[in-house]
Design brief:
Elements: H1 9-18, H2 27-38, H3 41-53, H4 59-70, H5 78-86, H6 92-104, H7 128-136
Helix pairs in contact: 2-4, 3-4, 4-6, 5-6
């Protein structure tokens, strides 16, 4: 990533990530973006973590963030991810993605009592068809 004169490295990353917002990225594009971010881990980490707390829940940015963090080298940002997981301001989709990242780091989600932390499933009403399928199982 080339640093433009007058822009901080973090601002440069934020500007570049905004160009991905709303795009339908291929797996290769997501991986390429993740590699690019992991190359600037110290600068990128707070920006990546902020994507999980973004109320817009942009699919492209969440995908890039998740892939980048799943490939993160140690030390893993476990404490920051756990704080986001417990935050009421983080939506269900980002929380589910955070759990996949934590699982990748070797955290036992089910045994740790984190499964379902802060995810209000009542926010997602079942359609009649879903309810019938669930009652038949």
């Amino acid at each position: 990533m080339e640093l433009h004169e007058g822009k901080s490295p973090s601002r440069e990353i934020e500007t570049w990530l905004e160009t991905l917002r709303g795009l339908d990225l291929t797996d290769a594009e997501v991986e390429s973006a993740a590699v690019r971010l992991r190359a600037q881990r110290d600068t990128a980490l707070p920006i990546l973590l902020a994507q999980f707390a973004d109320p817009a829940e942009d699919a492209a940015l969440l995908a890039v963030t998740t892939v980048a963090l799943r490939g993160w080298a140690e030390p893993y940002p476990v404490e920051a991810l756990m704080a986001l997981l417990r935050s009421p301001g983080v939506g269900a989709l980002p929380k589910a993605l955070i759990m996949t990242v934590l699982e990748r780091y070797g955290i036992d989600i089910e045994g740790s009592g984190l499964f379902g932390v802060g995810i209000n499933l009542e926010e997602y009403p079942l359609s009649e068809a879903d309810g019938e399928a669930a009652s038949q199982n």
